[in-house]
Structure formats: C-alpha cells, structure tokens
Amino acid sequence: MEVERVQTIAFSSILVDTIPPEFIRSEKEQPALTTCRGCIPQVPTIDFSDPDEGNLTRLIAEASSEWGMFQIVNHGIPTEVITNLQKAGKEFFELPQEEKELYAKPPDSKSIEGYGSKLQKEVEGKKAWVDHLFHNIWPPSAINYQYWPKNPPSYRAVNEEYCKWVQGVGHRLLSLLSLGLGLEKNELKENVGGDELKYLLKINYYPPCPRPDLALGVVAHTDMSCITILLPNEVQGLQVFRDDHWFDVKYIPDALVIHIGDQLEILSNGKYKSVLHRTTVTKQMTRMSWPVFLEPPSEFAIGPLPKVINEKNPPKYQKKKYCDYVYCKLNKIAQ
Ligand code: OGA
Ligand code: NI
C-alpha cells in the first residue's frame, strides 16, 4: 500500500495554497482560535550548571509540579554535538521519498520504530501535519540498526555521540527529581528500570503549511515516558496547556525542553504533573524536533512509590507493567 507522507502533501499544498480537508482541525482545536496571546506566562527556564544542588532541586521540583515542563540552559552538551545531530536528521528527511521509505515502519510491526506518518486517523478523522522517524538509542540490546538511516553516512556516529550526552542529562535529571521527592539520589532511576531504562529517539519533521491557522502538528497529548528531553530547531511551534489555555513555549537558543511524562506522574503519585502539549506549524519554515523519551523496560511495573504515599496521600494510580499502560493508552482504554 502506498502511504502518502505529509512531506509530499505539503509540497503539492503549497502550489494550490490550501490544505486537504482532513488536516483542517475543528474550531475547538484550530490554533488561530485557541492560542492565548498577549501577556504570556512562560515555562520556567533553569540554569542546569547551578552549583547549588539544593536550589536546582527546588527549582526543578517546583517546575515539575506547577508546569510539568521546563527548559534547561547550560546543560553541558557541546554545540557541535547538537548541530551535527540536527544536520544529519535534516539531511535524512531531505532524501528522495523512496530512500526514506526503506526505513518505513512495517505495517504489521508491534514496535513503534521506523519512519512514518501517524497512520490511523484520530477521532473526528483528522490528520496531523508531521512525519517522523523513531528508533531506540539505548541500551544496546534495544537497538535495531535497520531503522537508523545509512544516509547521510555520519548519521550513526552523530546519534551515538548525542546519546552519550543525553544520558548524562537524563541521569542528572532523574537524580534531582528523586531528591525533589525526598528520596535518595539514585532511587528514582532504580524505580524506572535502572540500567535497563530505555532511550527512544524520535525526529519530528513539520513541513511548511499554507494554512497554519487551521492545522496542527502533533495534537494535544501527554507523553507516556518518565521524562522526555526535547531538542527543537529554531522554528517556534511547541505549545503547553495550562489554566485552560494554550500558550506558546518560547524558543530559547541552546535550551533543551524537559517534559514530565505519565510514568513520573504515577511514580510521584501526582506531585509531578504529566504535561499536556501540542505543536503548531508555520507557513514558510520547516520545523524539526528531536525528543528523546526515557521509558521503563516494557515488562517493568510502575506505580506510586511506597515512600511517597501515606494515609494522607493514598495511591491515586494503579500499578501496572509499562507495556500494559502503553496498550491501554494507544487503544484509549481507561487505565
Ligand atoms: C512529541 C512532541 C513536540 C515538539 O513528539 O511527543 O510532543 O516540539 N513533540 O515537536
Ligand atoms: Ni510529546
């Protein structure tokens, strides 16, 4: 079956200056009608190089409880590592369509890995203005190189390099978030799978869209991961939902955007909030982003941590295996 990618649709849409009806969101979702402009509260920006660990822990715990999202600057990943990763990802998406299709997610595959567009239409039969590539980057036992582009030839090396650095940021975040729950530094990591914790990379490719007022990139969702470490390109587009409104998350050069995902909300028994977010698209520019999802191994069970619950704070979530959680979420079955 031939699947039409958004990148191809975008190309012909620009010529006619309209978009196919399945990309036009309902009025409840259209970004032009639902984005709050003017006096905009901003997600917190946190200096990750702050030598005062107590202060850093407090800032991260507050941002995770109040927003479920924050940006970190001075994260320590060298600029070159980031620009190389972004260049290789961009070169992959600029390859001829037939070459990208070599990495397409097989229709019968149970894993999320591979190149594609979201195949099933959402409720109301709408489609998202974005293509993607998913592949695991850690641990080595989870890696399927068949989904790592061979072109550009630098792709593997630059991804392996980024993986090393992003793990450093991930471990540090987990230990600060652990301290923020009143636990020992390493406790949270142990409770999300320890050394088996999986790092899943996604590249989002949002082509220019003639009607950015009517379409959305990824639609409103919370991430299923523990945490997500997202690297955007320079094009504005991420939005966060707070106090019943959608707000732009300002693009900050050299920052990483951290999302609290569903598993961390569950582990913390609701102290940290899994953040509702979505993305908009633009008329002239291609937006790209590289989220890395930190996920428990699929058979690993996640529930509220015994040390955070007590009589006054009884468990609000069921304990279940991560794979069962994912199954319910993807099939819209109550957790
Ligand atoms: C996602 C996501 C946001 C972005 O892929 O889960 O939320 O900025 N992406 O691209
Ligand atoms: Ni997301």
UniProtKB/TrEMBL annotation:
Signal peptide: none
Fe2OG dioxygenase domain segment(s): 196-296
Keyword Secreted listed: no
Example of a GO biological process term: pigment biosynthetic process
InterPro entries: DIOX_N, IPNS-like_FE2OG_OXY, IPNS-like_sf, Iron_ascorbate_oxido_reductase, Oxoglu/Fe-dep_dioxygenase_dom
Keyword Metal-binding carried by entry: yes
Molecular function terms from GO: dioxygenase activity; L-ascorbic acid binding; metal ion binding
A matching Pfam family: DIOX_N
Cofactor: L-ascorbate
Keywords: Dioxygenase, Flavonoid biosynthesis, Iron, Metal-binding, Oxidoreductase, Vitamin C
Segments forming a coiled coil: none
Family: Belongs to the iron/ascorbate-dependent oxidoreductase family.
PANTHER family from the UniProt entry: 2-OXOGLUTARATE (2OG) AND FE(II)-DEPENDENT OXYGENASE SUPERFAMILY PROTEIN-RELATED
Protein's UniProt name: Fe2OG dioxygenase domain-containing protein
